[in-house]
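Homework-ish question, so no full write-ups if that breaks the rules, but can someone show me the predicted structure for this set?
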Amino acid sequence: MNITKSIGMNGIVRLLTRNWGRRTVIGIPYGFLILFFSVPFLVVLKISVSSTDELGIHFQDLISYADGIFQLKIKLSNYIFLTTDPLYIETYWSSVKFAAINTFICFLIGYPFAYFMARSPASMRPALLMMVSLPFWTSYLLRVYAWKGLLDDNGVINNILIWLHVIHDPIKMMHTGFSMTIGMVYTYVPFMILPVYATLVKMDLRLLEAAKDLGATPWKAFWLVTVPLSKNGIVAGSMLVFIPSLGEYVIPELLGGPSTLMIGRVLWDEFFSNNDWAMASAVAVSMVVLILVPLAIFNKYRADSGGVRGI
Amino acid sequence: MDSRLGKTWLIAGYVFLYVPILTLIIFSFNASKMVTLWGGFSFKWYGVIAHDSEVVNGFFLSMKIALMTATASVVLGTLAAFAMVRYKSFFGRTVFFSHINAPLVVPEVITGLSLLLFFVMCERLFGMPERGMFTIWAGHTSFGLSYAAVIIQSRLLELDKSLEEAAMDLGCRPFQVFYLVTLPMIAQSLMAAWLLTFTISLDDVVTTAFLSGPGSSTLPLVILSRARLGLDPTVNAIATITVAVVAVGVVAGSLWMSRQERRRAAEQSAAYREGMQAMGA
Amino acid sequence: MADSVANSTGRGDSSQFLKIDRLSKHFDEVAAVDNVSLDIKKGEIFALLGSSGCGKSTLLRMLAGFEMPSSGNMYLDGEDIAKMPPYERPINMMFQSYALFPHLTVWENVAFGLKRDRMPKDQIAERVEAMLGIVKLKPFAKRKPHQLSGGQQQRVALARCLAKRPKLLLLDEPLGALDRKLREETQFELVNIIKSVGVTCAMVTHDQEEAMIMADRIAVMQEGRFLQVGHPREIYETPSCLFVAGFIGDVNLFNGTVEVDEPDHVIIGSPECRHFVNHGITGTIDMQVNIALRPEKICLQEIEPTIEQRESAAEHGYNSARGTIDGIAYFGKFTQFHVRLESGKIIKASRENTARHEETQLERGQQIYAWWDGSDVVVLTN
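A: Not a homework solution, just the prediction itself:
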């Protein structure tokens, strides 16, 4: 009797200590993220719907309790403004447009690049791969800045063209949609290349031989075998390019112009130039909504194709 | 497909990737203040930045923050990765998952803004923290942790679980299993995660801009403020130094790793041959 | 108090060195191990045999402590081990993948468990040297696992387990990762080492040959239960059910009905022939039974077997059938014949190739007689 009891006690002690370790392992990173990621976002959410006091400095509490009545005050004027103001609507549209164009160009350049990398001799591939990822490790800010030097009115490209007598007056490239797009493509093309390369290099080349054996021309084999098999890489790459370019700030700031409206830059200006915290918060919330859409599509695709792969 | 087309495409791609960086480097040695017009070779701008207190202070602040961020990210990321891979069911696991992944997709302007508003609120309520190194570190770590967790998680997933069971079988208590077996096994991924989060922190400008306070300008903030105004030869000099350091580090690192791998493969096949001979004898 | 526990679980009783008592393990309502009881003798090599998913690995992992039993008890040398964590059990396991620590040398791998016990350094060195001597790996002490061949890695894994002098050694598919040729050599070597050390051993395998060569006793498992526990010969010659008969070796099966049931013999009628079984069975007249017959127990000859040839078959006409050779497969040490009986049923018969040139070559399409001894017939009543 006694013995079974003591074993039981031991077991309980052990269970508690085990759970203690487990709780630490889960709790510490979880706690950090809740404190420095989730709570701050809730603060943004709150500020985006709260009204300021008479002085316009302090944000009032959403829920107040006075005379035995709970009061919930939500101010939606910022959101109404966001959805009706033509400038904001244009900004959303323009952000999506530039992100989509960027994704498409990255695909056009990156897919063949990844393809040729994957089909080059195996001994060369590590070096080729390293050369793609090397720019990753150098400052992104500096790489964007580099294009300023190339595309400026008296930048390297214009200077060379004038020196070669191809043109007489500098071409206006800086602060246009062109300069911003080229900066975005430059920054994000490795994000397209790497996942596509990863799927292509894993591909069983005998499948192509089989396709050719069954009478497919090289092009047909490419379209009917290679491209469908690399679909996962294309989707992953597109997401890795599209989502961050939607919220881009540095590139539109350094390479864009007045006509290249991007939502990230508008948020920055609302906050730093206009000092409108509530409006900036509302823009932030709307940006999250904007990003959730492609993310949900991506997750659904992943779930669906996961089911197919499971067979 | 045509191999000539392939070579051309690859060469053109690498030219596109590297020409901007090369021009940055070339014009850092330009004697002229005009960044894009060649005025002769000179180390002038390197001397200038060495005495530019804004640049020097920014550099040291950035390094400090990057060191702290990378270390904290790896520690927290290891715990998070461990929780995701090893604990198959716990309360709020899916929420935990999305918490780990969310910082990877949320634009930095939002991370920066929300953390700033949060810290402002804290400051009003508790009188702290002051904006500066700590707030920047917290911001960087909030997404650095996610990057580290993703890298370490993928290594943990491919780890042979029987190694840890064997350790336990041979008398290791759970914590001993972790530091005698698991840790050495994932050491390389910890190193990779540390380096990645270090460079991400060193490079970050958007979140930093929101979270920095007076007198806490990191190097990227200095660069951004100068780049906004136009072309600046000191920025080129800074760029060249970082590119040189990174290139040497990454190339040496990957050469070392591929040599390790080759040696390992050679030893493995030697052992196999030996085994076959022993069997024949 | 402690004494009463020890007595009831039989400390010192070498026939119950390991006692598994009504052990079960459920994974989400599915019973991987279902109410299993077993005693293993001290010094015995015991094999759990079954196809994948039969619960043998779960049972082994419960012994090692990696899985907690849903119910039931386990006693090792009189000590209750069911609730002990793996690192406190006097049990060591050799993993299928060997699970050698890749960052440690052979020497460090073997010493790993000893260091956890805080054994003095000189004793560790002594023990490791001795273990490496046993597995003939002394010259390889400084190598890392990846610098060893598969067979050497397996020996390091064995040395690492034995170094702690466990009361119970667990082997998980011990030869699963080796080439076929290497396997045969290693089987005997492994048994020799285990027997010379004298450690009690439980192993898991899906390979019936491996189990029969290595083990003193075998338990055939299916769906979490033991179908039969016994000596390899017992399991092969007198399988307890259809599954065991089919799982261990090749077998011919006949359906039949009991026609005569006498204490010393039974006669069973089946469409192919009438079987004379010269041992009693527990059954009744008209009972449906299965008859199992090993291929090597069937003789093939061109002429009808004479009475003298088959004394025990008692009466003329029993235990023999006419047929045609439908196929011949030459395996080297034996040849297997597929014989189509007159009823249309195809049976397998094998003949050992003892002489290099057989005098009577049987050929495809040839008419032959197949016959067998009444004592070789196994009657399965379920």
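Now go work out the reasoning yourself. Hint: Residues 1-10 of chain C have pLDDT under 50 and may be disordered.
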